[in-house]
Amino acid sequence: MSFTIVIPARYASTRLPGKPLELIVNKPLIQHVHECALKSEADEIIIATDDDRIREVAESFDATVCMTSTRHNSGTDRLAEVIKEQGYPDDRIVVNLQGDEPLMPASVINQVAENLAQRYEAGAATVCTRIHRVDELFDPNVVKVVSNRDGYAIYFSRAPIPWDRSHFPNPPRLPPTAEFYRHVGLYAYRAGFLKKFVMWPVCLHEKVESLEQLRILFHSEKIHVDVAKELPGPGIDTEDDLYKVRDMFLN
User: Fold this and answer.
1) If pLDDT is split at 50, 70 and 90, which confidence band does 174 have?
2) Distance CA 217, CA 24 (A)
3) What would the pLDDT profile of 56-69 be if each residue is shown by its tens digit?
4) CB of 95 within 8 A of CB of 8?
5) What structural domains does the chain harbor?
6) Which of 84, 86, 90, 156 is CA-nearest to residue 120?
7) DSSP-based three-state secondary structure for 13
8) Strand partners, 27
């Protein structure tokens, strides 16, 4: 299996500006993410950024960098520009490893690439983990996913799905008869599919939920979802997340 990892990294993060350059145990966050990628089976790793400060730091630890537009609305759009610049064939598998995931196991990166390689009918592949806490289930920042019997996504939501009407909401608790899964924001795409995806307009469900992957389902394309082989560590969205991850690296 041959695949590329692209790590989108922008400086102007809304909740934590300059996030890729925040230090964790004397290394910038983006370097930790790059080291996760190096442990995988990828034969190419590219950091895609729109900021010279990130480029300079990435090049200091010998990473390959692709400079991209400052006008992109998402990391997926940034991936599409890299695909165009690199001239990848349509069947090239590209994994989107987000630049704020310094604890993503290499086995899970390999997993999404391999799952997509084995399923030609899918446009994308991703992973999920089992939810075991009621606060996580009802947290709108935790994206939930429901899949069909063949492992393809039916829907993603910030709401608790499926809704167990026998047990919700008095009081909210994890019912014994249902399973709930958290979506992990790691994707593998085929280059040709991603070229199509970025040409589609934002759909209503995507806009309402603020979940880009719903655009794929809206266009009747398939997303394969598998339970992650290893439990990924937390990503970093806020300053509180950064402190927690720093503590994890120290302990």
Assistant:
1) confident
2) 37
3) 999 999 999 999 99
4) no
5) 3-250 (3.90.550.10)
6) 90
7) coil
8) 24
Tens of pLDDT, residues 32-47: 999 999 999 999 999 9
Tell me the two tokens of residue 148. 């069909």
Q: ∠ CA 15-109-214 to the nearest 5 degrees? A: 60
Ramachandran sector of residue 36 (left: φ over 0; alpha: ψ -120 to 50; beta: rest): alpha
For residue 74, give both structure tokens. 């998402």
Instruction: Reply yes or no: is the peptide bond before residue 160 cis, omega within 30 of 0.
Output: no
Amino acid of residue 243: Y
Q: What is the DSSP string of 89-152?
A: -TT-EEEE--TT-TT--HHHHHHHHHHHHT-TT-SEEEEEEE---HHHHT-TTSPEEEE-TTSB
Question: How far are the Cα atoms of 33, 60, 61, 122 from residue 81, in angstroms, in the given order?
Answer: 20, 23, 23, 21
> Residue written as tokens 């987000």?
98
Q: Which two tokens stand for residue 208?
A: 């309402």
The C-alpha atoms of residue 244 and residue 30 are separated, in whole angstroms, by: 17
- Phi, psi torsion values for 184, nearest 5 degrees: -100, 125
Contacts of 48 (CB under 8 A, 6+ apart): 6, 7, 8, 9, 65, 66, 68, 75, 78, 79, 81, 82
Number of helices and strands in the chain (H, E): 9, 11
